[in-house]
Amino acid sequence: MKISVVTATYNRANLLPKLFNSLCKNYKTYKDFEWVIIDDGSKDNTKEIVKKWKNEVDFDIKYHYQENAGKMNAINGVMRYVSGDIIIEIDSDDYLTDGALKMVNDDYEKLDNDNVYGIIYKRDIVNKDTSIKNDLDGKVIKLFDFYNVLGYDFDLALTFKASERKKYIYQLEHNEKFITEARTYYRMDQFYDGMLFRDKYIIKCEYMEDGYSKNINKTFKKYPYGYYQYFKECLSYCKKVLFKKRIYFVKHYILFSYLIGLKKMEAIKGVNGLNKLLVMLLIIPGYMKSKRF
């Protein structure tokens, strides 16, 4: 099966060599893959180093450039150039473990559930405990449940059936440039059994100081409309969710209701059931705290 490694990058010419070198190492054990790069308006020498690499390796490197529009728009736009059966989205500051692509191919070859949309692996994250306490290996699980029913809080390495992944885009609101990937993945959860979980590492990473994960409060303030929709949708998925997670969703729903200018009654009307009751109880202190935020 052909694997498409998809990377959106912006001024990361100094970091991309790690990922490039990991692909070169993987080529020794698995050769049927392509690296699809979407350059989101870099001002550094990304184009030049990628051009150099294309002449040095036997695997296919596809490079596409666009004016800066944000990671999500970049990934949405580049999907039409992806030709693999399996898609792995890898950030420019991440890299593959040795033998990762062969492992992924072998697991997909054995996959016999038509109603899963991909396979979940683990990231080896610097200074982060990513051990799994539950016996999940080989089981099908929804991503929403992994984070909000089982309560894990670290990023995973996601691989997708290309035929299913291409049916969905990262939904952006009000011309914003960013929204959490989870919004799309949680939507996909609603139409499939979930994803097969494998307790194996295929990606290593260390979050950069200029990344979204390190600057979450700035990200929240900059992209409130998308996050409002995201938390509203999360509340609609809350059935067996941990109570502390429900409260987390409610508090953030209130925060973004305030940030996009909703009146209190409009925010209350936007949810139902237990969520409505919790919003009613928390909206006044929530709006006061949001004003300070």
Fold and architecture overview:
By secondary structure, the chain is an alpha/beta fold. It has 2 domains: 3-205, Spore Coat Polysaccharide Biosynthesis Protein SpsA, Chain A (Alpha-Beta Complex); 223-292, no CATH class. Helix content is 42%, strand content 20%. It has 12 helices and 9 strands. Strands 1, 2, 3, 4, 5, 6, 7, 8 and 9 form a 9-stranded mixed β-sheet that branches. The radius of gyration is 20 Å and the shape is globular. The N and C termini lie far apart (49 Å).
Strand-pairing-aware structural class = alpha/beta
Listing every helix as H and every strand as E from the N terminus to the C terminus, the arrangement reads EHEHEHEEHEEHEHHEHHHHH
Largest sheet geometry: 9 strands, mixed
Q: Which segments are poorly predicted (pLDDT under 50) over 5 or more consecutive residues? A: none
Approximate strand percentage: 15-25%
Number of domains: 2
Question: How many whole angstroms does the radius of gyration measure?
Answer: 20 Å
What is the number of E strands? 9
The end-to-end distance, rounded to whole angstroms, is 49 Å
Tell me roughly what share of residues is in helical segments: 40-55%
**CATH top level class name of the largest domain:** Alpha Beta
What is the CATH superfamily classification of the largest domain? Spore Coat Polysaccharide Biosynthesis Protein SpsA, Chain A
Give me a quick take on this structure:
Helix content is 42%, strand content 20%.
